[in-house]
Structures are given as structure tokens and as C-alpha cells.
Amino acid sequence: MVYDLIIVGAGPAGITAAVYAARKRMNFLLVTGDIGGQAAWSGDIENYTGYQFVTGPELAAKFEEHMRTYNIPVKEPERVVELDKRGSSVRIKTDKAEYESRTVIIASGKKSKELGVPGEKEYKNRGLAYCATCDGPLFSGKSVAVIGGGNSALDAALGLIK
After folding, report:
1. Is the dihedral angle over the CA atoms 116, 121, 125, 127 positive or is it negative?
2. Which of 6, 20, 106, 144 would you label with 128, given CA atoms 20 to 30 Å apart?
3. Catalytic-labelled residue, pool 44, 84, 95, 131
4. Predicted confidence (pLDDT) per residue in 3-36, tens digit
5. What phi-psi label fits residue 44: left (phi over 0), alpha (psi between -120 and 50 degrees) or beta?
């Protein structure tokens, strides 16, 4: 079967694309390692539109509930390992199967680069954050450290100063 659309990733962007595809009654498939993406791994979220406060797992549950409303076809957990353009279609190979589609949306998100230092896993989302823009306001009035280099670290530090 050749799908009209395959969406890779089920974070906020991938799920939004899937909801629109379902509403348009497209022949599509959502392939993901997990539902919720990076949002699901987050602790407290204070900057997601429509919620003044929600935890990552609560938000991921809301995403999943919204998807069930539209009976979105999901292949989970599947990791995409290869994409290959073949004429007018794209072959998507996962760790479990192969699919073919005319169009692909890659909404695979990002994963923060971990430092590999002692205590990192224990303090992740409990005082240790990877996004100054997202999590900086949670530490307002407190001493913080920015670990990194180059423009990204400087940008984060300048943002936190405000």
C-alpha cells in the first residue's frame, strides 16, 4: 500500500499534522518511537498555549486522547532508520517494517545533548534543564549556570539575565 502521507514523530508538531490529515480524511500513517515526544519527558510546563500549568506526562496523555478522537493510525514504538526516495514516492524503513508514501512530514523533534556528568540523570527536570527559553522562568530569582559554548550558550545566558 502506498500512503498519501507518512508523518514521522508524535510530538506536538507530528500530532498536529496527524489531526489535520485525519480531518482531511487522508490515507496516512503516523510512525513514532513514543507519543508526546520531548514534551512527555518534561517536568512542569508553564508555557504551552492553553495551559497555565501542566506536567509533561499530562500533556502527552492529552495528545493521545486527541489522537484517539480521530482514530489516527499509529505505528508505535517504531524507529525510522532509513528514508529512500524512489521515483514519485518515498520508502520509509523502520526497525520493524517498511512503508511507502507519496509525501513525508518529518517531525522527529530533538533530543538534548547530555553532559554525562554525575547526578545528571537524577536532577534532569528537577533543577537541571536543557532549554533556557522554555525553563528559564522556572528559576527566576535563583542562581543558575549555563553549560556550553558558542552562540547558543551566549544566547541562553543573555536570555536568562533578563
Report:
1. negative
2. 106
3. 131
4. 999 999 999 899 999 999 999 999 999 999 988 8
5. beta
**Helix, strand, or coil here: 69?**
helix
Catalytic (active site) residue 44: no
Question: Is 45 in a helix, a strand, or coil?
Answer: strand
Integer-rounded Cα Rg, in Å, for the chain is: 18
Q: What angle do CA 147, 152, 155 make, to 5 degrees?
A: 95
Active site residue 134: yes
User: Pick the catalytic residue: 4, 34, 134, 155?
Assistant: 134
Rounded to whole angstroms, the Cα distance separating 53 from 161 reads 24
Question: How does DSSP classify residue 146?
Answer: -
How many other CB atoms are found less than 10 A from the CB of residue 95? 10
Q: What is the pLDDT of residues 34-93, one digit of tens each?
A: 888 877 777 677 777 888 888 888 888 888 899 999 999 999 999 999 999 989 999 999
C-alpha–C-alpha distance, residues 66 and 43, integer Å = 21
Residue 135 is among the residues annotated as catalytic for this protein: yes
d(CA 112, CA 125): 12
Tell me, what DSSP letter sits at residue 124?
B
Distance CA 134, CA 1 (A): 41
**Alpha-carbon span 15 to 72, nearest angstrom:** 9
